[in-house]
């Protein structure tokens, strides 16, 4: 739960970079078409194709700021275009213009080569641009070695099965033209790409047409529609990397006229260093700690957990209240934030049914030890088992969770509490979870003055998302309990409700209840995971009910255009198999393939529904 990531200060020390450059890796997203170049300012610079420094100029009108990229490198131009939009949103007292050939040199430039020593009053800063290899989202592979990557680009590795993928298929090099990505070290000469794409959106479509494709993409461009591979164990997309040893990076340079003033300097610092609160340079890197608002958040979400019935009897037999979670706890604990659906009461005041086929789920309060062992930070109570033992069972559960430091949502002592979001702040990002019971709310739904679950009602969804946004949430995540049981394809009603949530501001939609994994959908820039399936359950009577998955999701703040939006940039599904009626085991790539294939088949069917 809260994995320890490298701080900006420690990374700067590792790389020997100064404070502005490090987190700019996520900025250059390579989706902007190349713009015009600029005439160099001096003969010495002309020989290099760049100016010695941004020449001091008298703007054509007061308050005008010019931004550009003089050497027309696609990646430099892309980053400069982004900087242009960013400054336009951050500096309302200035007119920010894109410089053009024939115009005087821009006041702020981004270039691929270090300018000569700047003149008096001028400043320059090195930026480090990181790239990651991306593949089709369905490729069952999470990492690659730099040596193997070099062999791919040299044409010596031609099939994914050689790299451990349980699916064989030809490897095809694809290129993103606007990225101008560095080649893996030691590749001379490289093989020609099978296809090239002008921007990221066309590359995503290209990976559908070339399912064995691989391309090198700037970190800031990557989203959940592709699979970004870790390299040599370094995963910069998730903030887990030794960047000093990371092979896929290149330098860019930011240069500006210091006479522009502290306001412009602070904006440039925010752009380069990921200080999304716009903090001045000194406070961003000085004192006791650096701003971490640009750091990714690693979120893990699991499906349905019951500690009752046979799971309860197994915990009693083994004398271990955390037994069901011991196999998965080490993996779940690596997340910054872990959420699940809890489908039973945790109470010492409820009778424990002896019937192994009962549909009333309860266990001792001590079973909360399994949740804490796994680092679970919050649970949804919006389901058809939270109220199996009435108000007593629900309120005891809430007290038990609170005593263990676990937040609940989707259920409460009254409707207001049941509708209240579970709010979490991680690395400066505020995430709100809302729980909705679409199965048993007619029987168990909370009211103005009685306990229960939060009913799945479209008006509640719209109002609650708006309220969470107004309370400062950067990302709102509804967690729906819905669907017929034992089906892989969501109903049209479920899709309408998920779309309604996203149309009204949700950035991620989760689902559970059918006891099977279901398909996924990407809608208006947000992922929908219709069902994660069982996670801790005792339905041993079928393979599908023994199989489930959890999702590892990476969230990043998207500052393109000066915004503060938080978006998922990775959704990785991790299959599990429940054994001995209680204990999930994480499956390797080959074992987990049938689970993922069912998800993909259902996803394809969703696409045909329109």
From TrEMBL:
InterPro entries, per database record: Capsule_synth_CapA, CW_Biosynth-Accessory, Metallo-depent_PP-like, TAT_signal
Region (Disordered): 35-63
Keyword Signal among UniProt keywords: yes
Domain Capsule synthesis protein CapA span(s) in chain numbering: 298-539
Segment forming the signal sequence: 1-24
Keywords: Signal
Keyword field contains Transcription: no
PANTHER family with a match to the protein in the record: PGA BIOSYNTHESIS PROTEIN CAPA (PTHR33393:SF13), POLYGLUTAMINE SYNTHESIS ACCESSORY PROTEIN RV0574C-RELATED (PTHR33393)
Protein family per UniProt: Belongs to the CapA family.
Protein name (Swiss-Prot/TrEMBL): Capsule synthesis protein CapA domain-containing protein
Taxonomic source organism: uncultured Thermomicrobiales bacterium
Phylogenetic classification of the source organism: Bacteria, Pseudomonadati, Thermomicrobiota, Thermomicrobia, Thermomicrobiales
């Amino acid at each position: 739960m809260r994995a320890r990531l490298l701080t900006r200060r420690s990374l700067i020390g590792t790389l020997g970079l100064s404070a502005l450059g490090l987190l700019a890796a996520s900025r250059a997203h390579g989706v902007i078409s190349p713009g015009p170049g600029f005439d160099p300012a001096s003969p010495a610079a002309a020989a290099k194709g760049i100016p010695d420094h941004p020449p001091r100029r008298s703007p054509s009108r007061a308050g005008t700021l010019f931004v550009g990229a003089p050497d027309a490198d696609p990646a430099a131009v892309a980053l400069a275009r982004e900087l242009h939009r960013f400054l336009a949103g951050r500096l309302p007292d200035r007119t920010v213009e894109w410089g053009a050939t024939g115009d005087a040199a821009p006041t702020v430039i981004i270039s691929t080569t270090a300018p000569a020593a700047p003149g008096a009053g001028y400043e320059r800063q090195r930026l480090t641009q990181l790239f990651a290899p991306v593949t089709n989202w369905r490729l069952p592979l999470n990492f690659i070695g730099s040596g193997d990557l070099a062999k791919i680009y040299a044409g010596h590795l031609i099939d994914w099965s050689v790299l451990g993928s349980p699916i064989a298929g030809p490897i095809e090099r694809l290129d993103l033209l606007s990225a101008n990505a560095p080649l893996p070290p030691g590749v001379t000469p490289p093989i020609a790409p099978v296809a090239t794409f002008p921007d990221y959106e066309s590359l995503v479509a290209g990976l559908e047409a070339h399912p064995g494709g691989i391309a090198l993409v700037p970190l800031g461009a990557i989203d959940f529609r592709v699979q970004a591979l870790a390299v040599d164990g370094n995963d910069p997309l998730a903030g887990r990397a030794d960047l000093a040893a990371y092979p896929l990076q290149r330098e860019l340079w930011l240069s500006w006229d210091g006479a522009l003033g502290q306001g412009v300097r602070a904006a440039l610092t925010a752009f380069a260093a990921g200080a999304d609160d716009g903090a001045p340079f000194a406070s961003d890197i000085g004192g006791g700690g650096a701003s971490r608002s640009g750091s990714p958040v690693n979120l893990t979400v699991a499906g349905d957990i019951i500690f009752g019935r046979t799971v309860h009897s197994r915990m009693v037999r083994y004398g271990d209240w955390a037994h069901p979670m011991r196999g998965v706890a080490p993996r779940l604990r690596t997340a910054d934030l872990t959420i699940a659906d809890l489908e039973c009461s945790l109470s010492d005041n409820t009778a424990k049914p002896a019937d192994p086929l009962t549909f009333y789920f309860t266990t001792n309060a001590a079973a909360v030890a399994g949740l804490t062992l796994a680092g679970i930070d919050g649970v949804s109570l919006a389901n058809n088992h939270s109220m199996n033992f009435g108000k007593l069972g629900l309120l005891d559960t809430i007290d038990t969770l609170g005593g263990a430091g676990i937040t609940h949502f989707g259920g409460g002592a009254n409707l207001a509490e049941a509708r209240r979001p579970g709010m979490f702040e991680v690395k400066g990002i505020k995430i709100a979870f809302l729980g909705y019971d679409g199965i048993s709310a007619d029987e168990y739904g909370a009211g103005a003055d009685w306990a229960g679950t939060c009913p799945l009602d479209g008006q509640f969804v719209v109002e609650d998302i708006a309220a969470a946004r107004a309370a400062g949430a950067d990302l709102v995540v509804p967690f729906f309990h819905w669907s017929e049981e034992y089906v892989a394809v969501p109903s049209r009603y479920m899709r309408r409700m998920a779309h309604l949530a996203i149309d009204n501001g949700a950035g991620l939609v989760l689902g559970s209840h059918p006891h099977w994994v279901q398909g996924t959908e990407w809608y208006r820039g947000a992922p929908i995971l219709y069902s994660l399936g069982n996670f801790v359950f005792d339905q041993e009577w079928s393979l599908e009910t023994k199989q489930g998955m959890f999702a590892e999701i990476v969230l990043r703040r998207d500052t393109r255009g000066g915004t503060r939006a938080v978006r998922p940039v990775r959704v990785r599904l991790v299959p599990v198999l429940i054994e001995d009626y209680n204990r999930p085991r994480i499956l390797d790539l080959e074992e987990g393939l049938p689970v993922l294939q069912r998800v993909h088949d259902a996803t394809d069917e969703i696409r045909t529904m329109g």
